[in-house]
Amino acid sequence: GNIADYDLTATYWKNRKYTVDASFKLNPDGMANQLYFPLNGSDARFVAYYPYAAGVTATGKMSFDFTDQSDKEKKEAKDFCFYRGTTPYSKGGATPQFEFSHRFSKIRVTVKQRTGGLSVKDIQMKLSGMPKIAEVDLNKLSQAQTDGITVGTAVTNVTEITACTLSGSTDAEATVEAIVAPHSATGDFAKKVLTFTTAKGEIKSYELPKRTFNAGYSYSFTFVLDAATKVADGMTNCYIVAPGTELTFPVSRAYTHDGTNFTTTLHTGDTYTGTFIAYDIWADAAVISGTPTVTGSGNTAKVTVKTNASVTGNAVVKICRLDNGETVWSYHIWVTDYNPTQNTYTNMYTFSSKQYEFIFMDRNLGATFAGWGSVSFGSGFGTGLFYQWGRKDPFPATDAVTTGSWSKNETSPTLGTIAGSIKNPGVFLLEVSGSEYDWLYASSNNTLWGHAANGGTKTIYDPCPSGWRVPVNSDLSEYTSPWKGFTRYNGGTFYSGGYDWGTNAVYPAAGYRIPSSGSLNSVGAYGLYWSASPASSTSNGASYLDFFDNYVNGNYSGAGSTYGFSVRCSQE
After folding, report:
1. Which of 58, 124, 222, 513 is deepest in the core (most CB within 10 A)?
2. Higher pLDDT, 353 or 291
């Protein structure tokens, strides 16, 4: 705190720092800060404030920026308290007694979890539409609460405050606080929104009722978190969302097919500016609530998908033209509590004096938990999903889906094209005689997932979520598999159901889907994982991880693109 003579304009006034001990006794912070009074032969009165600030101007002014209150120390540094004494004290008289009052306002929010809803443990809160800066004039502050406090009303003074989550939060309840400048809910401060972000990245926003925030008052609010809201970009084919989330994303990816207008490669006629409609193709669990909806039209349209609380799994949603029902794009909705940035493992190695590093997810794409757990194989929940090489859309690891359906058809001149695969995302394309195990009927394409020889860039057909991709072989001329070092002799152990290479590097033996029939095969016995790279620069077959109980090959080659293998995403 600060103690000074009452007359702040006097030349002997100093901004002296004092601390308070457990018995509320004021002690100077260093001998140089001791005060002796009366300084001019008369009784003295005192002015004190808290917390101490070295930046008080010579005229007794202080400035507060409320933007960052992300922890307890930062929040308390904004809680300005003040005392102006009216009683004169002398050296031989009574001990001065200071009674501080809070001069700003406090917002205290209790956040509760609705039954089956989002966890609020370690939740973060931001308040938009709040004053950013307040100036305090110690000379003008009196015992009246608002004297001497100036809050600018210009647009430049409006900010978003990051609040402080108090310790002791649980899944069911958390408390969040922030100090704000006194102000009226008018003009630039008329609309205020609280935005909550859970520890898993789910977002929910609420608008505060209009209210004047008076100096020295604490305002309490209670919110029960319903479904989270996630607004995502359109630059991915897979969205990770938590149960109980409302996901909104644009249809714009349908307009960037192969980097060109989607009507020139997928459709005929002019750019489509009409209305879209959305459908579920299939889901391996009851993850989708209701029917996906589309707002707007053309390339500015947006899709909204709601997921049920407490249900994890996968769904594939397609976007269709309303006028003719033609599918223009499709998306994988991966409903899981998994946060891939917090649960990864790294495979790093040196080969030919070059260092390679791959950061992988700890589970298969589409899996609801890592490893294979106690769920029997064929359920798909621990093993994830299957993908045909170069295609963006998944297929279930079980023949029984909860909702919708998917089918198996032989590839053909119509189906076996990129456009054909996009228009038919729920069709597993089977090989035909002469197709060389390739779902592309007329000619192969080794660059659909963007292997290293093609610059290694993630493509618009990559099935992994934003920030992740199908792993690549860094150099096709060398043995530089993403899984180099994964051997049965290098810490690898095969259990009934998969391989374990140590911390987080657990791979289920999910089996695969056969090119000739699409049927499941070797479930629980074999693990096969696609890379984005072909077997060689001249081969049409792909490179992949292959293992069974007494065999591991991290750079196996030759599998045709009609096989359905697992995918383990690596970080971009």
Report:
1. 513
2. 291
